[in-house]
Amino acid sequence: MSARPSTLRIIWHRCPGACAGNPVRPSFQTYFSPSWRSFATRSPRSTPVPRPQRRTAPSNLQYAELPKSLQPKAGGLGRLFSRVAHEGDVTLFKAHSQRSYYFSAYGLSAFCFAYAVYNSNAVFRDPVTVLPMWQQALFGGICVSMSVMGTIFLVRTGNMIRSIKAVHSQGQPRIRFQVRGMLPFRMYEFEVAPSQVHISKKLVVSPESVARYENDSRKLLSGSNEPKPSFFKAPVARLSHGIWRIFLSVRQIFTSEDFILIKIDGRKGTFRMDSNGAVDRDFLLLGNPVRMRGQNS
User: Fold this and answer.
1) Which of 128, 196, 235, 277 could form a disulfide with 192 if both were Cys (CB 3.0 to 4.6 A apart)?
2) What DSSP designation does 71 have?
3) Whole-angstrom Cα distance, residue 277 to residue 162?
4) Where are the transmembrane segments (predicted)?
5) Coil, strand or helix at 190
């Protein structure tokens, strides 16, 4: 696992060959060769030299679900699951603590629903004074809008990916997802084939942000061994850090920034992956999650 907290923002920039197409799927890179051969003026040879036959890797039943371009002979996923066979389960992604995100989302959702219920009761069921029709329509529209916003905030807490692991299950290579639902403290797991995983929304970064996050990562790594002060020793610093985390979480709820969307064949909905988590380099074998600004996806 990578120790960097913002690995996905810089992993694309550091990946060798990242500027030449898709760096994580070598089988999709096209190498052009001239299709026409020049004519020879000399007579052809009497006995043609036998061309060496290309050696193919023996077929294995455990890779039957993989597409042909990602079979072990391509080298990508074959090396990954060879690592799984030697080391056991390989963690490709691990999300950081998302308590502030869920606390902010549930708080905003509760506020929106409470506002809608209180105002609808005060305007329609038990009004102090009878309001004109246009004011009732205005307050009714506000209550409906607040209810919709509360529903959106609540829905955005679902399908949050906690971890992604490469495992060997039932004699086949599988990708195991641990996902958190909308209800608190509810997690579920499921396993899919690597070919069923598709990245639908990538993280768009700029060269300036790459350099900035590299500097931030160096600072974090240099001070990663230092223990964090407790709340009673540094209450102002910890309180300021907590407020800042909540502010970032609220902004993330409204804008859905720093999220990578993943679609899985056979599963309903879109799964959300927080780019601030720790990522292993072999995650790139499932797809490139980062796109530089100004380039086509």
Assistant:
1) 196
2) S
3) 9
4) 101-118, 138-155
5) strand
pLDDT reported for residue 286: 84
Judged on CB neighbours under 10 Å (0-12, 13-18, 19+), 58 is: exposed
Alpha carbon of residue 71 to chain centroid: 24
Q: How far is CA 89 from the centre of its chain?
A: 19
Question: For 33-64, what is each residue's pLDDT tens digit?
Answer: 333 333 333 444 555 555 544 444 434 444 44
Q: What is the pTM of this model?
A: 0.64
Mean pLDDT (the chain) is 73
Place of tokens 């329509």: 137
Calpha distance 82→90 (Å, rounded): 11
63: Cα separation from own chain's centroid: 24
Q: pLDDT tens, 52-105?
A: 444 444 344 444 444 443 344 345 677 788 888 888 888 899 988 888 899 999
Helical residues (DSSP H) of the chain, grouped into ranges: 7-14, 76-87, 99-120, 133-155, 207-222, 235-255
Interatomic CA distance for residues 200 and 263, integer angstroms:
6
Most distant CA pair in the chain: distance in Å? 108
Give the closest residue to 67 by CA, choosing from 234, 169, 198, 161: 198
Q: Select from 216, 163, 160, 206 the least CA-distant residue to 183.
A: 160
Nearest to residue 192, comparing CAs of 261, 260, 264, 262? 264
Q: Report the C-alpha gap between 164 and 279 in whole angstroms.
A: 9
Residues in CB range of 5: below 8 A, 6 or more apart: 96, 217, 220, 276, 277, 278
* 73/78 Cα distance (integer angstroms): 7
Rounded distance between C-alpha atoms, residue 184 and residue 144, angstroms: 25
Note the Cα 10 to chain centre separation in Å: 14
Do the beta carbons of residue 104 and residue 246 sit within 8 Å?
yes
The amino acid present at 61, given as its one-letter code, is L
**67: its two tokens:** 């597409």
